[in-house]
Every structure is written in structure tokens, then in C-alpha cells.
Amino acid sequence: MPDRVLVLDYGSQFTQLIARRIREAHVYCEIHPPTRSIDWVRRWAPKGIVLSGGPSSVYEEEGPGLDPAVLRLGVPVLGICYGMQLIARSEGGVVVPGKREYGRARLRVHEADALFAGFGEGDAVVWCSHGDHVDEAPPGFVATASTADLPVAAFRAEGRPIHGVQFHPEVAHTPRGGEIVANFLFGICGCAPGWTSSTFVTDAVARISEQVGDEQVLCGLSGGVDSSVAAALVQKAVGDQLLCVFVDTGMMRRNERRDVEQMFRDHMGIRLVVVDASAEFLSKIANIAEPEHKRKVIGETFIRVFERAAREFGGNARFLVQGTLYPDVIESLPVRGPSATIKTHHNVGGLPDDISFELVEPLRELFKDEVREAGRALGLHEDFIRRHPFPGPGLAIRVLGAVTEDRLRVLRHADAIYLEEIRAAGLYDEIWQAFAVLLPVRSVGVMGDARTYENVVALRAVNSRDGMTADWYPFDPAFLARVSTRLINEVKGVNRVAYDISSKPPATIEWE
Ligand code: XMP
């Protein structure tokens, strides 16, 4: 087993970033609640333990605590912000409540060693966000850095591998934070950087083979990166015992079905069944204009179609592949409130609870970036790996109002031209998500000498990290002019093009 680090989550909004920084350094880590027992921690055998920040104060009776035994394990510990305050409190230091500090600060490093190896004695910019702070290091600890406002911006125990920082090394606003994390992992914990996409693939393949044995496995492919990588992994493990099912909902983009067939069947040699259910989907959503109603009907239809396909083609399958990712698995602290712990599974492809399969979830321990890396290690085509996200209900929520085959055709054509131009301009990878939307209004125009009364297409392009917030993409006007000319000339039924300049919030990325 490769070296691994335990991140105890005290509810910081940055806990996942801590885990990502550690994994980027090629060390495996997991996030767990701080309520894990000391015996559990010992059995888990971490090479290092990170205590995250959090919204609580060490003066709150109800705040999540730290079992002092964690500091006696002999395993290196790094406390970040609230994590540092917990160490201070536990070891007899002074934590001062209630002086909010937020934003960048200049760190004066006193000891260019251990956490700050390679820093030299001098300044570094760090980012802070705290209410309480450590004012005096506990007995047997030394302050290793300070800022104008923080006498103890970092500390370490003498003779024990216990460290704390009051600032946040995991955020991008702390430019040398990655070095601090690496110093902890390699210099202090002595971890080996053994977590790479190819070791992940090797381990995952072995685990899947063991789980599945010689049973049959079914996988629903959406064409998105998660289900693609999951399918490729399972195929590598059990070959033709895997059968993939792609449901053509009729709400796909141009060539989507063809691309999936070529990629999986022809290029990767995966057994693939394509179920053309477009007529069924179209008739189910005909006359439904309300977006949530559309989503619901599409979701239900998808489940029914998939169940039928499972019975028909995967009758003997005992296992079903799901592309669950690590952020869905993390057991978060209740301090974050239900909104952060409950993920709305609005993905079409979300399967019914009563379906009688055992699940194979080969991506359960990966973040999205790591899924892409694994895809590369598996030899998936870059085009699949770098695809923009595409919503489960597909073009149905981009044909605003009632969906008809005709309107889908107009949108599909417009969307294909828009994306073709984005690719030609070399912008595809720079943009997080881009698509066209067909508006439910008509607009007057003039073409030749005649009046027209036709459709309006809106173009959307956004940059985002995770889809939770997004900024509209500032295209060069010449690019927009080119796309607009092509759309109006080439797409029959369109006489006006608009560019969406709303960010999320308050808008959302999709229009419906
Ligand atoms: P919104 O519109 O909520 O979209 O800002 C955020 C991201 O989620 C995608 N999206 C969906 N994905 N089923 C999905 O699988 C849906 O019903 C759905 N609605 C939005 C959207 O494309 C964007 O990437």
C-alpha cells in the first residue's frame, strides 16, 4: 500500500483543496470526520495527519474537538487554522478569540526549516481567514513564523513532529503553499510520492478483477468523461464480461452517438449496445415546456429505458458500473449544514434504488482532474478527456419551451457551428463549457429584400472551476461576428444571434 495521509475535516470550505494539494504531490490521502476513533486512526496507518480549518471556535462547547491521543501517536500532524488552534488549546497555548482577519498577509519566516525549508528567512505572502488566532505557542513549542498581526503564524513542537499554521497553505492565494504542503509530506512525514495515475490504474484493475470475478458487468455510457473512464477501467480488468449501453435520447448533439460508437466499439473494442429511444423520449416530452417537468420526465424515461435494456442485453449481469467520484463519497461534517452534504443527483443516468445490481464504482476515490489523468493513462482519446460537461437532459433544456424534432434540428446545427468555430479558434480547452440555446421567441429580420420572422439563437460560454459559480467568457468581437454570420447564413430558420453576458450567480449556466 502506498504511503497515505489522513485529512480530518473540521468543516472548512477548503478541506477538499487540502486533499487536492496532497494528491497533486502524488501522495494518496483521504478526508474523514474528526469523530473517527483513535483506534480507527491507528489501524488506518497514516504517514501524516492534517487537521483542517473550520468555522468553529475552540471556545464553543459544541465545537468539534481533537482527541489528544492523536498528538501522541508519533505520526506527524499539521494543523491548519482551526486545526492549529485545536493543537494550541490541547497543549496549553493561548488562543485569542474574536479578532477577524481575512485576506493576504506577509509572513516572516523565523526558521527556514521543516515546513519552511527552502524559504530563506524573509517574507512570503500567505492568505488568512480566521476569527480566533494563536497568541502564544504552548510550552515546548516554538513560533516559526509571524505576520504583522499574528505573533504565532506558525509553530512546531520541539522534539515531536507536530506543526501548525494559522494561514491557509492550500489556497491559490498562498503562492508558496504547495511548497509548505510538500515540505510536510516529504520532509516531515517522509512520504514517497507513489500516487500516480498509472499506479491508480494498476490497483483499480486488480480490485475490479477481484470484485467481479467471472461475472457479467453492465455500464451505462453517457459520453461524458466519468462514465467513459469507468468503462475503460472495467474493460481493462474484465474485458468482454463488460457490456456498455448507450441510450440515444434524441437530445444529443450532432454526431454524439456516432462519436461514442467509434470511440468505444471501434477504437477500444468495448462491447456496446446502442438503444435508440429517441422516439420514446420525444413523445414523452412533447408539449412540456416547464424545465423541471422536462427534467423529471426525461429522468424517469431514462430509467425505464435503461431497465429494459438491462433486462434485454444484460440479463445475466450481476454488477453495474457507476461513475461516482470522491466528492460524492466524502463524509462531511454536519457543521457545514445539509446544503453542502446533500448533492442533488439530477444526472440523467442516476439509476433507481430498487435496481438489483451490485455496484462497481472504480472512481470513488478520484477527484475530477484525477479522472482525466486516469483516462489518459488508459489511452482514452484526448477529445473525450477534455470534453465540456454536458447535462443529462441534453438539448431538451437548451430548446427553451416545448421541444420538437424540428427545433432540435435547428439547435443541433447551430451548436455544431458554434463549437466548430471555438475549436478552430483554439479556444475549446480554454473555455469550461460552451453551447448554443434556441430561444422560444421569434424576431423580425430582413434577408435579401424580404422580411423574415424567425428564431433567435443565444450563445453561451463560461469559465468555471466546478460549475457552482461561473463567469461569461469574453470573446473577441471578431470571433462573435464570424459565428453570427455563419449561423444566420447556414442555419435555416435563424435570423438573429445573441451572446449571453450573465455570470452565475445570479444567472445559471444553462438557461433552463
Ligand atoms: P447550472 O445551469 O445549474 O449548471 O448553472 C451547472 C452545471 O450543471 C449542468 N447541468 C446539469 N447536468 N443534469 C445534469 O447532468 C441536469 O439536469 C443539469 N442541469 C445543469 C450544466 O450543464 C452545468 O455544467
Q: Can you tell me the overall shape? A: globular
The CATH superfamily of the largest domain is known as: HUPs
Strand content: 15-25%
- State the helix count: 15
Specify Rg, calculated over alpha carbons.
Answer: 26 Å
Structural class: alpha/beta
Distance between the termini: 46 Å
Q: Report the helical percentage.
A: 25-40%
Q: What would you say this structure looks like, in words?
A:
40% of the residues are buried. The strands form four sheets. The chain has a nine-stranded mixed β-sheet with strand order 2-1-3-4-11-10-9-6-7. Strands 14-13-12-15-16 form a five-stranded parallel β-sheet, with helices on both faces. Strands 17, 18, 19 and 20 form a four-stranded mixed β-sheet that branches. Strand 10 (154-157) and strand 11 (162-165) form a beta hairpin. It folds into three domains: 4-188, Rossmann fold; 197-385, HUPs (Rossmann fold, 3-Layer(aba) Sandwich), CATH 3.40.50.620; 397-499, 2-Layer Sandwich (GMP Synthetase, Chain A, domain 3). It is built from 15 helices and 20 strands. Helix 6 (225-238) crosses helix 12 and helix 14 (405-424) packs antiparallel against helix 15. It has helices at 15-24, 38-44, 82-91, 177-188, 197-212, 225-238, 256-267, 278-285, 291-313, 326-329, 338-341, 368-377, 382-385, 405-424, 477-490, and strands at 4-8, 28-32, 48-51, 77-80, 94-96, 101-109, 123-130, 133-136, 141-146, 154-157, 162-165, 216-221, 242-248, 271-276, 317-321, 358-360, 433-447, 450-463, 471-472, 494-499. It has 512 residues and is of the alpha/beta class. The protein is 33% helix and 23% strand.
